[in-house]
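Appendix B. Chain record.
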Amino acid sequence: MTSLFNTLWTDTADESAGLFAVLDPLRNDDWRTGTGCVPWTIGDQVSHLAWNDDATVRALTDPVAFVASRPGPEGIQAMVDAVITDHHAMEGPALRAWFRSARTAMLDAFRDADPKARMPWYGPDMSVTSKLTARFMETWAHGWDIVHALGHEYQPTDRVRHVVFLGLQALPNAFATHNRSVPAEPIRVDVVLPSGARLQLGPADAVNTVIGSGYELALVVTQRRAAADTSLQSTGDVAGEWLEVAQAFAGPAGAKHARRPE
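C-alpha cells predicted for this chain:
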C-alpha cells in the first residue's frame, strides 16, 4: 500500500474500532432507538453499513459478478431502501456480528487491493482509494448519528479530514444533484482540525473560500448540520452556494439536515 492509502486504511480501521466500542455494550432495546437520520434506527444504520461493506467486498474481489448482478440506475435507490426493510427486525447481537464480519472482510479486501485500480460500484466506476474514502465517510457519518442517538457527545479526531476532502471532491455531483450548474471557479478550504492542525485544500489564490472548523465542515458535507448553524465562514458566491448544497455522498439530495438530533 502507498503511504497515503495506508493512512486512510488505518484511519478507517480506527474509526471502525471506535464505532464497535459504542455498539458492543448495547442492549437489545437500544438497537431500536431512533436516530436523527429519520426514520432509521440504530439497527437500520448498522445494517446499511454492513450491507455496503459486503457489496464492497464483492466489487473488489469479483467485479465481473458484481456488475452482472448490479441493478440499473432506476433500481439502485429501491435496493438501498430494501436493505433496511429486509433487516429491520434483525436482533442487535446478530446485526453487530454481521457488521463486524463484513467490516473485517472489507478491510482485508482493501489491504490486498491496488489503490490506483478502478472498481465497479452502483454508478460510475471509481478508484479503490476513492471507494475506501467513501467507506470512511459513511462510517464516520453513521457513527456520529449512533453516538448522538444514544445521548452522547461525539469526540472528533483529525480523521475528519477525509470527510472534508471527499466533500470538496464531490462538489460537482452536489451541484448537479441539486439541478444547479457546476461552477468553474475553484474553492479554497482552510479549516482547523480538532488537534489544532490546519487542513488546506484548493488553490491558495481562489476567490471563493471556506474557513473555520474542519469538524463542522464535515458535519455540513454529510448534511448533519446546516452551514448557518455553524461558525463556518465563506467568501464568494460559489463557496456560499456550495455550503448550501454540499453532500459527500451519491444519490438524491433528500431532506436537508433532518438528521440534526436537537
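Further analysis of this model is presented in Appendix C.
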